[in-house]
Amino acid sequence: MIPALFLAHGSPMLAIEQTPYTDFLAKLGEQYEPRAIVIFTAHWESETLTISSTDDVYDTIYDFGGFPDELYQVKYPARGSTAIAAMLEQKLTANGIEVRTDSARGLDHGSWTLLHRMYPKADIPVIQVSVNPCLAPEQQYRIGEAIRGLGREGILVIGSGVTVHNLRMLNWGQKTPEPWAVAFDDWLLEKLQSSDLNTLFHYAEQAPYARQAVPRAEHFVPLFIAMGNGEEQAQVIHRSYDLGTLSYMCLQF
Fold first, then answer.
1. CB-based contacts of 249, cutoff 8 Å, min separation 6
2. What is the pLDDT along the chain (253 residues), one digit of tens a residue?
3. S-S: 196 plus which of 14, 55, 82, 191, CB 3.0-4.6 Å?
C-alpha cells in the first residue's frame, strides 16, 4: 500500500537547486511507483473543492516572481486523468462533499516543483485538487477520509503545503531554525504521534506560536487532508529548515 504524504514545497527554487531536501524527494520518488498522483495544493484556493479533469498535458504555471530565468524554463508536462478525476468526484460527493471540476488549469508550483524532483519523467497521471483554507480542520480531515483507500489502489495522495510558513518572518541567509518554529513543529509531532485529533483540530488556540507559524491556513490545511487519508500513525520522513523559519518537515500516514 502507498501511504498518504504531506510534503513541504517551500521555495520554488527546489526545482533547480541541489540540496539535501531535493535529494530526499528524489529518493522518495524511487520508493513508490504509483499509477496516478492526487495532489492537494496550497496554491489553488477555491470555495468549492475543485478537481482538475483532463487527459491533456498540463501547462506549467509560474505563480511567483523575482526568481532566476532558469526556473521559468522548467516544465513539467504531466497528463491528467478524467477517469480518476471522476472517481474522486464520486467518492467525495457520496460523502456529502460538494465538488466541481476544471479542465483548463495547469499545475501550480505547489505541485510541479515537488513532482519534478520525485518523478522527473512526468509519466504518471496527475490529478490536482484545490483547498479551501476557510474550512475547519475537521472538515479538511473529512475530505481526506472520504477518499481513503486510494493507496491500496496504487494511487499516491499528497497534501502539498508547509507547517511553518510565514513569509514576513523569513531570515534571509539564516540556516539555523528559530526556536519558536521548532517548538511549533515539536508540538505538532507530539499530537500527531499520540493521535490527539481533537487537540490538533484546535491547533490555532492550543499550539505554541500558532499565530506566527500559520498566519493563513492555506499551507497548513493540506496536512489535515493527508492525515484524514492515511490509515496509519504519522511518521516523520524528513525534517529540516531554511531561512530561519521555513519548515521542510514531511510526514507519511
1. 8, 163, 164, 185, 236, 238, 239, 240
2. 999 999 999 899 999 999 999 999 999 999 999 999 999 999 999 999 999 999 999 999 999 999 999 999 999 999 999 999 999 999 999 999 999 999 999 999 999 999 999 999 999 999 999 999 999 999 999 999 999 999 999 999 999 999 999 988 888 889 899 999 999 999 999 999 999 999 999 999 999 999 999 999 999 999 999 999 998 889 999 999 999 999 999 999 9
3. 191
Domain 4-252 belongs in CATH node 3.40.830.10: yes
- Which residue type does 153 have? E
What's the pTM value of the predicted model, to 2 decimals? 0.96
What are the CB-based long-range contacts (under 8 Å, 24+) for 27-35?
28/118, 28/237, 29/117, 29/118, 29/119, 32/2, 32/156, 34/2, 34/124, 34/154, 34/155, 34/156, 35/124, 35/125, 35/153, 35/154, 35/155
State the cell numbers at 79.
497528463
Segments making up each domain of the chain, as ranges: 4-252
